[in-house]
Amino acid sequence: MPGPPKAPSQLCLVRGNPSKRPLNRNGPNPEKWVPSTPKHFSKQEKYWFERIAEDLNASDILTHIDGMALELLVGVYVEWRQHRDVIKKEGHLYRTESKDGNVMIRPHPQVAMMAVGLFMCSVNSDVFHAGVIQILLPSLPPDCVVVMDNATFHKRLDTQKVIDDAGHIIEYLPPYSPDLNPVEHKWAEAKSKRRAVNCSIDALFSHYMT
């Protein structure tokens, strides 16, 4: 069938290594290896690092080049679980009251951090579309309003369709309104922290950004 592959209707966990063949005859064949648990990890991070490493090793797919990727994965996963626990306890929404007495219903700040992904590449419409399907939509509660800025890759028709088909509404920010975009505030915090501690991007998101 011509055209790009269809987006999956649901994601499922595949255990083991269904395809034992290498990518190609001249493809790399790195040595099998189980990385050591990072000493700087918290107790919870160490637990999940060892558990996931055990599962990957049992599937015969863990190699010596996977250590850093696994470390980043576990850091993000544990943070996601922490946000999830807070939301379960406190709810997806909270009420605030302005100085003039108006009551506003706002999303819990932890909800915004439930769908975090780190892409080691430039973001285009294909990367963003994959992030929506694989990261954003599985993290959203029902009937959300998805607010985005006016970046071109936010407006691809099939991306809008998968969000709409999932039962959510899309709203775009006014042009040139970074003050209304919490992502801009988070990036400002990230840039400031990186300047202060002079660390790599990996270390920034693994250890400093919450």
Reconstruct the topology from this structure:
Elements: H1 43-58, H2 67-90, E1 93-97, E2 103-107, H3 109-112, H4 125-139, E3 145-148, H5 157-165, E4 169-172, H6 182-197, H7 201-208
Parallel strand pairs: 3-4
Antiparallel strand pairs: 1-2
Helix pairs in contact: 1-2, 2-7, 4-5
Protein name: ISHde5, transposase orfA
Region (Disordered): 1-38
Domain Tc1-like transposase DDE: 121-196
Can you walk through the features of this model?
- The radius of gyration is 20 Å and the shape is globular.
- The chain is mostly helical and 210 residues long.
- It contains seven helices and four strands, in the order ααββααβαβαα.
- It has helices at residues 43-58, 67-90, 109-112, 125-139, 157-165, 182-197, 201-208; strands spanning 93-97, 103-107, 145-148, 169-172.
- 7% of the residues are buried.
- Helix 1 (43-58) crosses helix 2, helix 2 runs parallel beside helix 7 (201-208) and helix 4 (125-139) packs parallel to helix 5 (157-165).
- 44% of the residues lie in helices and 9% in strands.
- The strands form two sheets. Strands 1-2 form a two-stranded antiparallel sheet. A two-stranded parallel ribbon has the order 3-4.
- It has a domain at 89-208: Nucleotidyltransferase, domain 5, CATH 3.30.420.10.
